[in-house]
Amino acid sequence: MSAIFPKWTNRLPLMIITGVLLFGSALVAGVWYYMSPNYARVGYKPIQPVAFSHATHAEQLGIDCRYCHNNVERSWYSNIPGSSTCMNCHNQVLKDDARLALVRETAQSGKSIPWVQIHRVPDYVYFNHSVHVNRGISCVECHGQINQMEEVFQSKPLSMPFCLDCHRNPAARIRPLDKITDLNWKWSQDPQEAARLQKLHGEKLVKDLKVESLQTCSACHR
Questions:
Q1: Whether pLDDT at 1 is above 60
Q2: 31 and 129 together in one domain
Q3: Residue 15's domain spans which residues?
Q4: Are residues 155 and 123 in the same domain?
Q5: Among 55, 222, 43, 83, which residue's Cα sits nearest to residue 148?
């Protein structure tokens, strides 16, 4: 008498169990990895190899973001400056300070300081810095008041809903191009007046700068 089911169906329960275990493991690993502080947790503040204060350099001394992150207007990523950039000032200022020993050493050797990356998105997300800063979106929108931080930490969630909130209504966050790196700039010191001016000028800036309010999957997932 011939079998009702082919022989391979005898392995079906094992195949199902194996598939479920593999899928479950991949799901747990993915959630564990992408929900780690490196990706999602606001407040993530790792210990860096050199103590660098944005509050001192950007706020007190007024150094423009683009002096160090000089590719941000023309590249998809915001570059970390090499030690030679630091030494443009520190070959005179605090030139023998022990806290800058690694800066001096790497400047001489040509090696990079092993900074710990703080702000990052998953590998399946495409983000272009130059597109945003050249369309009126300031550093503070994603990084917060980084100019006031003694130690840099993740201030915003950088999640999909966070990005979509801005993409759906860019007029609420856009500012004039000459104010992009003026991180303390506001339309007005009065909150109600600032909101009124933002609404008044925001839509015009969106039109003038030809901002595309992209919300399709392919805009960010490529």
A1: no
A2: no
A3: 7-36
A4: yes
A5: 55
